[in-house]
């Protein structure tokens, strides 16, 4: 998307960005953005300079490099906004990299499911949740 929300107010922008994140959660979305707050929770940021790739990494990790282009762009927003952007990037990073929660399956359900699972190769059953 090429600056899909460039000419809308911040409230409408937030609504559109939220919709994009929900509807395209499991899709690859390429976003061309001039508002840094719209990309701080992206999986990766691609920084171009004069049409050449300069950086490609998670926003939070780029912000740890004071010599990165991305770091300098964020710093140009001013100290308060830069801190807010860094916090948003950090929260998104931690959420993406938190360990998955494993839930045990009750024995009664395990017994029922075992009739559908091949006898070899499985020693235990667990449900994996991203919650």
User: Structural class, judged by helices and strands?
Assistant: alpha+beta
Q: Quick one: overall form? A: globular
What fraction of the residues are assigned to beta strands by DSSP? 5-15%
Taking Cα atoms only, what radius of gyration do you get, to the nearest Å?
21 Å
How many strand elements? 4
**Helix and strand sequence:** HEEHHHEHE
Spatial strand order of the main sheet: 1-2
Report the average pLDDT across residues.
Answer: 81
Question: What is the helix tally?
Answer: 5
Helix content: 25-40%
Give a written overview of the molecule:
- With 131 residues, the protein is of the alpha+beta class.
- 40% of the residues lie in helices and 15% in strands.
- The protein has helices at residues 10-23, 59-62, 69-75, 79-97, 107-114, and strands at residues 45-49, 52-57, 101-104, 126-129.
- The protein has a two-stranded antiparallel sheet with strand order 1-2. A two-stranded antiparallel sheet has the order 3-4.
- A hairpin with a 2-residue loop joins strand 1 (45-49) and strand 2 (52-57).
- The chain starts with 9 loop residues before the first helix and ends with a strand.
